[in-house]
């Protein structure tokens, strides 16, 4: 009996050991099954309160920077703290040039960095600031991967960096808090990008250096031209730097400058093509520029040599109106684009001021010898004449000091100057019905009559 009991006890012990071994395995299998946690944003969220508060300007910038999904993911994982300037701070305490810099599509990275530096992935209350003004300060990491410094003063004022907190706990929600500040927090990297873009230090240039030339009369080197200040325009016109036509050279030839290129023209051309794709509505012309590598390369070389360009880009609706015959001819796409490139730097403001002052303005294009005619119409700038005209539709899509891109709503074609042949009209010319021989002199006629009386007129042929 005792042996049977001990045998059953041994089996029970082995059964418990087997269950103990299986339990971690089941737990391991449960850990391997992916669990999805979808961040649901309810009406009591701090993000919803941001849209309905006095900080709508900041909310619009967040939407332009495509950061809504990033903030929703952050709220789904932890509380957040937003340091938000109110709408008046954007109108009064923000430089208009800096605001224009942030809203340009090509500066999207700087805008995202600036906005994420205002958001800390944790809840920060008043107790997180130093209670007494000391030389120590508390630092917290923001979503922009930089540190936000919190300091206090003896008067009880709270600061985020060097920006004063004017309305602490302006919005308090279960998933976050919003503190109102007097102005934007501008990171050093964003300020540096703005300074470089404004002063053009990153793309400053000097006069292109050409190869040495020999005077054929003396077989000596020609004297170099006097040096000019850095950043001055090239001495030669832009047409001397362009490549020969397709009949002479299949690929663009290099410009007159040497290897010391202080402009990165290829990068700037790629930058403005990428801006067209991000802007939307100009995909056709962007694809054409990508496919016509020789034209894009030549534009980049011209900018590298120090020349400036203004590109009039038709939108997709205008490009869709082109017929197959207009694009199927050899070299037709290149000729169309060359006619839309102006050999000078123009913005919406400069062109509108010119047409307001002078009425009609003709701009030289890279398609010689044709020019683009601009004039004022309906408070905007109108290019071309007649049915083939186009209006300035999206101004200043891309402006970096070297390349200016202006959106238009039509494709321009040069006006063919037809010289009518001069037709000779006979309405203003009186012609005698019967042409008569010119009369001889009166004295000669009398002399012939006298000779005829004597029978001697036959000797003189003049009298016949």
Quaternary class = single chain
Q: Report the biggest beta sheet as strand number plus sense, adding barrel if it closes.
A: 7 strands, mixed
Helix/sheet category: alpha+beta
Helix amount, in percent? Answer: 25-40%
What does the average pLDDT come to? 77
Shape: elongated
For the secondary structure, the number of strands is 16
Tell me the strand percentage band. 15-25%
Order of strands side by side in the largest beta sheet? 2-1-7-6-5-4-3
**First-residue to last-residue Cα separation:** 178 Å
Low-confidence stretches: 1-6, 19-38, 246-261, 417-438
Radius of gyration over C-alpha positions, nearest whole angstrom: 41 Å
Number of helices: 17
Task: State the gist of this model.
With about 475 residues, the chain is an alpha+beta fold. Helix content is about 35%, strand content about 20%.
How does the SSE layout of this entry go?
Layout: H1 2-32, H2 46-51, H3 56-64, H4 68-77, E1 80-85, H5 87-92, H6 96-103, H7 108-116, E2 119-120, E3 138-141, E4 147-152, E5 158-160, E6 163-173, E7 176-181, H8 188-199, E8 214-215, E9 220-221, H9 238-241, H10 265-279, H11 283-291, H12 293-304, E10 309-314, H13 316-320, H14 324-328, H15 332-339, E11 341-342, H16 348-358, E12 360-364, E13 371-377, E14 380-383, E15 390-399, E16 403-408, H17 442-453
Helix pairs in contact: 10-11, 10-12
Index terms:
single chain; 464 residues; alpha+beta; seven-stranded mixed beta sheet; 17 helices; elongated
Explain what the structure shows.
Helices cover 37% and strands 18% of the residues. It has 17 helices and 16 strands. It has helices at residues 2-32, 46-51, 56-64, 68-77, 87-92, 96-103, 108-116, 188-199, 238-241, 265-279, 283-291, 293-304, 316-320, 324-328, 332-339, 348-358, 442-453; strands at residues 80-85, 119-120, 138-141, 147-152, 158-160, 163-173, 176-181, 214-215, 220-221, 309-314, 341-342, 360-364, 371-377, 380-383, 390-399, 403-408. Strands 2-1-7-6-5-4-3 form a seven-stranded mixed β-sheet. A seven-stranded mixed β-sheet has the order 11-10-16-15-14-13-12. A hairpin with a 2-residue loop joins strand 13 (371-377) and strand 14. The chain is elongated. The N and C termini lie far apart (178 Å).
């Amino acid at each position: 009996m005792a042996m049977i009991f001990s045998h059953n006890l041994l089996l029970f012990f082995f059964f418990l050991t087997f269950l103990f071994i299986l339990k971690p395995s089941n737990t391991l299998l449960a850990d391997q099954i992916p669990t999805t946690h979808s961040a649901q944003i309810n009406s009591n969220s701090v993000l919803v309160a941001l849209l309905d508060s006095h900080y709508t300007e900041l909310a619009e910038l967040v939407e332009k920077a495509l950061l809504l999904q990033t903030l929703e993911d952050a709220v789904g994982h932890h509380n957040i703290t937003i340091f938000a300037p109110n709408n008046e701070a954007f109108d009064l305490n923000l430089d208009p040039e800096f605001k224009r810099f942030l809203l340009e599509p090509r500066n999207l990275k700087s805008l995202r960095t600036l906005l994420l530096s205002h958001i800390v992935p944790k809840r920060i209350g008043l107790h997180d600031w130093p209670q007494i003004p000391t030389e120590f300060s508390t630092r917290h990491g923001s979503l922009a991967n930089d540190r936000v410094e919190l300091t206090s003063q003896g008067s009880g004022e709270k600061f985020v960096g060097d920006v004063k907190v004017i309305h602490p706990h302006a919005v308090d929600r279960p998933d976050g808090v919003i503190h109102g500040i007097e102005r934007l927090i501008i990171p050093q990297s964003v300020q540096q990008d703005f300074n470089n873009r404004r002063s053009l230090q990153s793309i400053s240039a000097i006069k292109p250096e050409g190869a040495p030339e020999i005077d054929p009369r003396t077989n000596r080197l020609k004297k170099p031209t006097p040096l000019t200040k850095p950043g001055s325009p090239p001495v030669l016109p832009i047409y001397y730097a362009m490549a020969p036509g397709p009949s002479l050279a299949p690929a663009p030839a290099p410009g007159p400058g040497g290897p010391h290129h202080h402009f990165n023209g290829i990068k700037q051309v790629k930058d403005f093509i990428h801006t067209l794709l991000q802007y939307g509505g100009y995909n056709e012309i962007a694809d054409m520029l990508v496919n016509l590598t020789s034209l894009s390369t030549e534009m980049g070389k011209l900018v590298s040599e120090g020349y400036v360009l203004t590109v009039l880009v038709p939108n997709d609706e205008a490009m869709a109106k082109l017929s197959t015959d207009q694009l199927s001819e050899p070299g037709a796409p290149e000729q169309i684009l060359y006619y839309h490139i102006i050999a000078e730097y123009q913005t919406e403001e400069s062109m509108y001021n010119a047409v307001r002052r002078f009425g009609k303005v003709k701009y030289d294009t890279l398609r010689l010898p044709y020019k683009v005619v601009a004039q004022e119409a309906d408070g905007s700038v109108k290019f071309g004449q007649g049915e083939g005209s186009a209006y300035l539709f999206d101004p200043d899509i891309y402006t970096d000091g070297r390349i200016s891109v202006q959106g238009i709503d039509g494709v321009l074609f040069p006006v063919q100057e037809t010289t009518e042949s001069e037709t000779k009209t006979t309405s203003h010319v009186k012609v005698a019905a019967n042409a008569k021989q010119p009369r001889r002199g009166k004295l000669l006629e009398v002399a012939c009559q006298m000779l005829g009386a004597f029978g001697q007129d036959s000797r003189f042929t003049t009298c016949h």
